[in-house]
């Protein structure tokens, strides 16, 4: 029997150029255990992914700010401070760095995301002066978010809702926002492209990057083998 999965999306289920890897659509729809998506992306993105895979929407979005399971949505983060920090950042000449693309934050309920090309020094300076926000660099965006929420806490909530112990989950991820998931799950894998925080926290660091690494773990689990680095 395969274990339940908690999977990051960007950098983990994608190709190096950011597309969802086609193997996601081969390996996950028939996975015979719960599959949870845990992402920094806004709430609609993992819901859509689960829907298009034919899976129940069990998702942790916005780095744990939003948790959805069994048709119930929990809004756990408070965006007030994050939005105030970003307002000050903009007043001081900062730019979110998304150009005309407003979809990154349009549906984001508990945090604000900036492009990795935004002025990170200014952002961290403004954030440090505020109480109750942290800046998370996922490699895909800079997230101004509440330290009171995390993907790992989200996993505990989802696991509790579906009656499965968090320790039974296998986690795969690539960045610092996956460290809490790795801590909560029973086994954790960092893909080869993972940042130093995820690499240090994972039980196993994979030789292959992006979906190549993730698929190697899933193939092994499906075959009843212990995944190898
Ligand atoms: Mg990621």
Structure, explained:
This protein is an alpha/beta fold and 229 residues long. The protein folds into 2 domains: 5-76 and 149-222, 3-Layer(aba) Sandwich (Rossmann fold); 80-145. 33% of the residues lie in helices and 17% in strands. The protein has an 8-stranded mixed sheet with strand order 5-4-3-2-1-9-10-11, with helices on both faces. A 3-stranded antiparallel sheet has the order 6-8-7. Strand 2 (35-38), helix 2 (44-52) and strand 3 (59-61) form a beta-alpha-beta unit. The radius of gyration is 17 Å and the shape is globular. The chain starts with a strand and ends in a 7-residue tail after the last helix. 46% of the residues are buried. Magnesium ion (MG) binds next to loops.
How many angstroms does the end-to-end distance come to?
21 Å
Number of strands: 11
Strand content: 15-25%
Helix count, DSSP H or I runs of 4 or more residues: 9
Secondary-structure class? alpha/beta
For the biggest β-sheet, the strand order reads 5-4-3-2-1-9-10-11
Rg for CA atoms: 17 Å
Q: Using the alpha-carbon principal axes, give the shape.
A: globular
Helix-strand topology string: EHEHEEEHHEHEEHEHEHEH
């Amino acid at each position: 029997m395969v274990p339940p999965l908690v999977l990051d999306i960007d950098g983990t289920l994608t190709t190096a150029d950011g597309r969802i890897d086609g193997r996601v659509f081969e390996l996950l729809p028939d996975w015979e255990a719960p599959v949870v998506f845990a992402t920094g992306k806004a709430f609609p993105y993992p819901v859509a992914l689960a829907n298009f895979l034919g899976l129940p929407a069990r998702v942790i979005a916005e780095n744990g700010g939003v948790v959805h399971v069994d048709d119930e949505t929990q809004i756990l983060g408070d965006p007030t401070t994050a939005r105030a920090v970003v307002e000050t950042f903009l007043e001081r000449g900062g730019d979110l760095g998304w150009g005309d693309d407003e979809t990154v934050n349009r549906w984001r309920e508990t945090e604000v995301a900036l492009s990795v090309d935004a002025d990170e020094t200014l952002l961290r300076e403004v954030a440090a002066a505020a109480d109750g926000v942290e800046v998370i660099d996922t490699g895909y965006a800079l997230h101004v978010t509440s330290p009171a929420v995390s993907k790992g806490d989200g996993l505990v909530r989802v696991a509790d809702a579906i009656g499965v112990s968090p320790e039974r989950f296998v986690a795969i991820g690539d960045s610092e926002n996956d460290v809490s998931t790795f801590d909560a799950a029973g086994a954790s894998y960092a893909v080869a492209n993972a940042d130093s925080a995820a690499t240090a926290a994972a039980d196993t660091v994979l030789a292959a990057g992006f979906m190549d690494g993730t698929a190697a773990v899933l193939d092994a689990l499906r075959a009843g083998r212990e995944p190898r680095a």
